[in-house]
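## tool: complex_structure
## caller: assistant
## args:
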Amino acid sequence: MTPLVRVTQLTKQFAKTRAVDGVSFDIAPGETLGLVGESGSGKSTLGRAVVGLLPATSGESIVDGQNVGTLRGSARKALWRHAQMVFQDPYSSLNPKMTVRDALAEPLRNFGIARGAEADKLIRETIEACGLPASALPRYPREFSGGQRQRIGIARALIVRPNFIVADEPVSALDVSIQAQIINLLQDLKSEFGLTYLFIAHDLAVIRHVSDRVAVMYRGKLVETAPAATLYATPRHPYTQLLLRSVPVPDPKAEIERRRNVTGAEVTNAEATDNGCPFAARCPMAKFPTCSDKAPELSAKASDHLVACHFA
Amino acid sequence: MSEPVLSIRDLHVSFPTATVVQGVSFDVMPGEIVGVVGESGSGKSMTARSVLRLLPKSARLGGSIRFRGQEVLDMSPADIRAMRGALVSMVFQDPMTSFNPVLRIGDQIAEAMTLHGQKDRKTLSDRVASLLASVGIGNPKARARAYPHEFSGGMRQRALTAMAVANGPALLIADEPTTALDVTVQDQILQLMRDLNATSGTAILLITHNIAVVASLCRRLIVMYAGRVVEDGPTDEVLTAPRHPYTWSLLQSVPRLDRATGRLVAIKGQPPDPAEPLAGCKFHPRCPWVEERCTRDEPPLEDGVRCWVRPAL
Amino acid sequence: MKTAATLPTPWFAPAWLVRFLRSPISTVVGSLLVLVVVAGVILAPLITHADPMALSSDTLLEPAWAHPMGTDDLGRDELARVLYGGRASLVIGLFSALLSVILGMTIGMVAGFFGGAIDETLMRITEAFQILPKLLVAVVVVSLIGSGLTNEVLVIGLLSWPATARVIRGRVQVIRHEEFIAAAEMSGASWLRVLVRHVAPNVVSFLLVSASLQVASAIMSESFLSFLGLGDPAHPSWGLLLQQGQLFLSDAWWLTTFPGIALAMTILGLNLLGDGVSGSRIVAGSRR
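## result:
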């Protein structure tokens, strides 16, 4: 099957740092790719570069047959007719001076999708699909809670009926009980509207729950990608292993078991260099000089299980 | 049975517009680690801050907070200052704003000790170095001369913990100590707290929204909702056999890392607005087991559960 | 955001003064002063039947029932001159402030929104304007192109926009990175629409402050020009009245005192109002 999204050697450089460094992946139509990493790993930058909100320094991102990297002006606008984004902060992502109706009408008007009664019908359908009543439409964002605002943000992305949505930490600013509502909503919308997601999060449990396939990012590079079940059962990259070992589990027995396997002490390898593997400095399995000489490429260790490690 | 380090009875915290903590009671025994779990607005942080009287001026406090038998709510400002840091200390969520950015880390930790009696410079700098070493900061003598911005987030939280335990407090209150940190660093901080508790017997009151963090660290778990304690019991019992519908729903609404989860059970609706009075059980508008009585009368906390129905969960 | 109550007190201001300036009372007093002045100026024909330009032989009369503010050296009623003179002052103040706020907002928004070379260029130009000795340049330009209401409005307006531009630029730089701007771009909005529909409404409240102070400062500048004899004699403003009155300072105190009071009331009122607005919810609450 032709992938809906194909990212090849995508790089984004800010001043001297490479926030995203030669990242490649595909997303099949209808698939959810979970992108997980710690703060500063470059996952948000990658998400924005994939849909052309940030211009890439090099490499390409092809979404729905259009090469995002080379798009300018009206061509980018045409892409956003089909590719949208859900943002992290439900407070900063809505214009405080715009009613919900105006925020949802904006894309319809700008893309020339619908006007008048037809637009009104679409707006109603969309806000209701996102779990808010039509009575929310004439109100301003400040009248809503964080979870409700996130529903409005999702409705704004959904109203153009996109086929691809980048969800950048869509639940991390929300309370636990509200997180579940939003995760369920995103999953329902996916099946109802046939969406494909790039789901970005730092919460490994959320990523496991929503993703078909998972990509792990560390310092601007992908270090491992695999189907969710495989990745969580048999993580191969030492960094993925460290991540999974570090998360406490809300089950006392399982938690005691987990802690038994944690080695505890943090490894620091002084031999690591900038040319080598990005994880070499913290890796308990690093062998030098191999790991400091050459950065490992992301390569298949099993079918559909790619790992960037010399020794995995 | 020894005397509790901290004993909170019928604590009320109210502001001119709303009551945010209502009738909270619990004890922390010496050397015990107690976790308080709740979402934003549950009153968990206000409860913790009341112990050190770190509340906004407009807050009104009622009930009783006894630290080693002494009533905190009757203490003079001078007594409170003497207690803070020396006997009870606190670690906050944001380790960056907890340090003064223009002073060296070591000097700030030393100052915390001078305030409570220690004067000799040599002893001080040795003690600072050994504290930093005890929280796992390598090369402590050199690191003590660093400024806060030269530390990573995890190192700042370690240093902050070192400062908090510098005077060997009997109780450490940790308010979301790992929320701003990456998981790998969170795990180290949790281990650090476990070690502190094991070696020096410091009791810990951990405030968090993350149930898994409590499971990892605490033997006792208190669940708060809308300013009240709704469930209180040993961690493994509460987590494996929750008795309050809210606790149960909360556990069902979190995806699991260690196994695939089916569709999440979302708790419908929003937490109640503390400014608008709500009759009966505060969870009843969101509770799947709600009965007529729940909408009328508020259930008492009995046998560690605040629920009329007590469904088989 | 800091609220008015938690702002530090400047060392030179007594506490009671600071408290007054930040209290809602000062806003009320400011609004009242401005209201009185504006009402007097607009309702001038109802307040006095005297013609401000009508000459008579009753020269330099002291204030009395017939002429509450006396008469000037050509026998014109001073009350009428102060009331009608306010029209010239306020019109020049309002229009030159309007011009400078529109210029400042446009330049500030474009600089803050696009950044990079555009920002650099615009900010260097702004600084160039800011370091000009404003009044001196105004004097020179007005003496070259001639006085007159329009010329004064243009000169004062074109010289006083930099402060507004800088405030707006700073604010836009913050808003630029809010997620709703990225969302607006992805909603297919052109850059112009993003600026007008998404950025502008979120900076307008900051303009309120700038605008009221701008009006005060423009009235002062105009008075200064008139005082130097560069005013429009066909439309006597307070500044012009002061200039004419100062010749008779020892003989006729009323010719300088009354226009002076009117001017002071207006400037004080506008400043109190501006400070009040900046500390109020309208601005503080616009963050979110």
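## assistant note: The interface with chain C takes residues 48, 51, 53, 77, 80-81, 84-85, 87-89, 91-98, 106-107, 110-111, 142, 153, 156-157 of chain A (CB under 8 Å). Chain A has a mean pLDDT of 92. Handing back to user.
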